[in-house]
Amino acid sequence: MRPSTIAKVLAICSILAEFSLSHAQSVTFSIDTQSQRSTISPLIYGYNAYADGTGRTGWDNQGGEASLLALNMGSRRLGGNNMTSYNWENGVSNSGMDWCNSSNAGVSYATGAGAPNNNAGLAYYLPGAAIKAFHSQSITLGTYSLLQLPAAGKLPKDIVNLNPPGNCNGSQLWQSAPGASNVDLTRWLTIVNNKPASAGALTTTPVISDGNVYIDEEINFLLKNFGKASTVNGVKAYELDNEPDLWHLWPSQYGDGTHPLLYPNLTTIGDVVQKNLNLATTVKRMDSSAETYGPAVSGYLGLFSLWAVWDGSQTRQPSDWATYNVEPYLTNKTGDRYRYNGMTFANVYLDHMRKASTSAGHRLLDTLSFHYYPQASSTPADRVQASRSLWDANYVEPSWITQAGYGFTDGRGLELIPKLKQSVADFYPGTKLAITEYDFGGKTDVTGVIAQADALGAFGQQGVYMASYFGDVEGYIAAGFKLYRNYDGNKSVFPEVSVKAVSTNNGNGTVYAAVSANDPNTLHVIAINRLSTALTASVQIKNPVAFKNVQTWGVDASSQNVTPRNSVAGILNNTFSYTLPAQSVMHFVLKP
User: Fold this and answer.
1) Less crowded by CB within 10 Å, the N or C end of the chain?
2) 487: closest CA among 570, 551, 578, 567?
3) C-alpha separations of 483 from 413, 528, 578 in Å
4) How many CB atoms neighbour CB 308 within 10 A?
5) Which strands form 212-214's sheet, in the order they lie side by side?
6) What is the CA radius of gyration of the chain?
7) Taking the CB of residue 276, how many other CB atoms lie within 10 A of it?
8) What are 148's strand-pairing partners?
9) Judging by beta carbons within 10 Å of its beta carbon (0-12, 13-18, 19+), is residue 346 exposed, middle or buried?
10) Is the separation of the CB atoms in 498 and 35 below 8 Å?
11) pLDDT band at 180 (very low <50, low <70, confident <90, very high)
């Protein structure tokens, strides 16, 4: 769920020129092409389809087909709050508290399926119109599709208040008051993962008035249209719903959850884990070659305890929290309470998925997924550092998570990805990591490209399998992607083998480097200057072959476009110096 309010920052108006060496601070970037080699997954260069703040639909989303092709993305996700309630049979979804609890055509319309047919009873759209449109576009773009399936338990039956007032005042929707006793059951359908034989065979033309929506029938629809995940055009992966830590109705003093009418009780760990296991079992039964992602919690608190009411202390957790807040989930019996920086629910989830997979005789969870909206990125000064919480032990973000005495990291760096990799190693080895929603802000501010480029570099270096940006992939955000996926306008890319690259001061500047298995003598380097002044970088490379030629592309406050830059003055013994403009990202390509 993208936060409803992301602070807007002032655009940097002045065009920052490159400073002379005498005015610049300095940093050393050390690269060793033969050390710490690992494969970068192309799926980290992804975005959430139709997470577009402008209201554009179909191919017009994210600037249109040409813009999307120019981004040269590796993956797309169709997910979010509305997909928790997407009824594939007739295209209706419920917006929950994002928009007055309205049941509407939001998902279907956004994917380009057109306006709803209000003259055909419950058949507002042909079955699967939205998911078919989504994946058909993925095929055109040449991207991997991750499709979210519903697990919470209910789906909307029909459209109610298609255009509710923005403030919802005076607009009675499905019930006069939230809570299980007030639910209008005639407006909800029941999710059934596995269609019973008594209901007939799986079909691509489901009965839309039987009170049930069958998930295996939804997957069958996709299989009939596109084939299995193992085929060229098949849907590759399914996410086991979205942000279960926010489904529910919160205690009154803490406001409403995302879907308080759909899920009017507080979630429990046992319920969420079981719903994920049941849905994963159905997915694997229908298509054993498809990948599964879960639990897609909304952020750190979701990983910590599924959910917690936080007011400076952990005052309230799920009713079954005490059952799970025990060893080995706390420290793996090491006594190190910071082994996972408190992300205990992640350990519980992984362990239960592992045990169920062992019983089933095959893997039920392929990828641990979560969302990341940083707590400290609303100002330009915070934004240029924010992505370091994903990977840098030396960065302690200025947020409640790291405050001493709160019981989370207590003054330590968050290290989100390394800590979760430790969780995987301890509780379900072989499980991959995915950040299926994230956003640092800064689409119109140069600090946006700093955060975006740093995040993409970290995803690759840290071995993240898949990541999808949630928002408008335009402006400086698009530039961040193009630095890796289309830096020269010819779809040339940052290659797939990450190599060792370290900085003497990550607070000032960070570096990422990679080579290609097909072109091992060409080195690509992404150099980031976080400072509002120029930064002189001494780049020192250990490589079997001497580099002689360097080409440079970059982005800074002068333009939102990736443009060619001044080349390196000279390279000697695989060492060169370059003055990085203030708040900039440079892509160097070095050849013998």
Assistant:
1) C
2) 551
3) 28, 11, 18
4) 20
5) 154-156, 188-192, 212-214
6) 24
7) 25
8) 239
9) buried
10) no
11) very low
**pLDDT tens profile 3-42:** 433 332 223 232 223 333 334 599 999 999 999 999 999 9
Number of C-beta neighbours around residue 183 at 10 A: 16
Quote the strand ranges of 179-236, DSSP E: 188-192, 212-214
Indicate the residue type of 17.
A
- Quote the pLDDT of residue 167: 61
Q: State the chain's mean pLDDT as an integer.
A: 91
Beta-strand pair 93-94/25-32: unpaired
3-state secondary structure of 339: coil
Structure tokens at 24: 């610049």
Render 285-316 in DSSP notation, one character per residue: HH-TTSEEEEEEESSHHHHHHS--EESSSEEE
CA dihedral 190, 195, 201, 204 (to 10 degrees): 50
Q: Which two tokens stand for residue 335?
A: 């006594």
Render pLDDT for 491-533 as a digit per residue (tens, 0 to 9).
Answer: 999 999 999 999 999 999 999 999 999 999 999 999 999 999 9
Average pLDDT over residues 373-389: 95
d(Cα 102, Cα 74) in Å, to the nearest integer? 33
End-to-end CA distance of the chain: 46
Burial of 405 (0-12, 13-18, 19+ CB in 10 A): exposed
Do residues 447 and 415 touch, judged by C-beta distance below 8 A?
no
Residues with a catalytic annotation lie at 243
Q: What pLDDT shows up at residue 252?
A: 65
Per residue in 327-340, pLDDT (tens digit) is 999 999 999 999 99
Longest distance between any two alpha carbons in the chain, whole Å: 80
Nearby residues of 572 by Cβ (< 8 Å), 6 or more positions away: none
